[in-house]
Each structure stands twice: as structure tokens, then as C-alpha cells.
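User: Predict the structure for this protein chain, please.
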Amino acid sequence: MKRYILYSIFLGLIWCFVHGTVNFNNFLIGALLGPIVIRPFRSLYGFENKISYMNIVRKIPKLIRFFYVLFIEIIKANVMVAKIILQPKIDIKPGIIAVPIRTKTDVGITAIANTITLTPGTLTIDVSDNKEVLYVHAIDASDPQGLCDSIRDDLEKYVLEAFE
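Assistant: Here is the predicted structure, written as C-alpha cells:
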């Protein structure tokens, strides 16, 4: 029971920040409706016994680091796309690249796929049946190995820390 009270408080705080207004009414709505909405989806990703308040608290610094790295990668990708667009002669080689991934859980695969899609110039198209490869369309695939290394070293590393 204590765990659910902590979840409710945590979800109430998250709701306040998502809503943009921190007040008692918003907190109460998030604290009451959060567990009701989240409960049916816990088993969807295999979280039945893994979630605890302390696990959530331990993940917060890793999540902050992940979002910081994601923000930096989005900025770098925006600059790269802007350079491509502003060049008088557009010299790009778009293509689809197979990116091997280390994560094996559905949550990790979803997080890395969405992270790749959020960065301008790349789009996750598919995941292989064995969940070991993501197929990524890149606006400039002239250096496929460099792109794979960038995804593995700059993005997937932090996804693994934050979501697994």
C-alpha cells in the first residue's frame, strides 16, 4: 500500500509539471488518475515486479543525463540539416542504414527508435524480427559506419542506462 501512495505522489508531481501549473488541484488530479491510467499498462512491458520507488529515484539522474544528451544531439542534427539546406548545391546521399543495437527489451528498443526519429535528418523505419537491428533512413548516409557509431555511442548508451 505504501508503494502505491508513493506512486500516486510521484505521478501527481509529474502531472503538475506536464500540465505546466503546479497547484493542489492539478496535483490531486494526477495523484488520483495517474495510477488508474497506468495500472492496466504495467504488465504490457513486463514491469509487474520491477518497479519500486527507489528504482524510480535511482533512474532520475540517468534520465536527466539522457534528456541532456538527446537535447544536444537534436541541436547538432538541426545544425547539420540547416547546413545541408543552406548550401547552394545540395550534395547528400540519402539512404537506409542497418544499425545493430544492444538493447533487447521492448522499452529500450522503443526508446532508441523514438530517440533516433526525434533527431532531425534520421527516421527509424523498422526493427528486425530478432530485435537486433534497427533500419534507419538518414538524409545523408554518405558515412554509414559513422552514423552507426554515433547512434550506438551517443544515443543508445544513454538509453541503456536510463531505460534498462
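Helices lie at 2-19, 24-38, 53-86, 106-118, 144-163.
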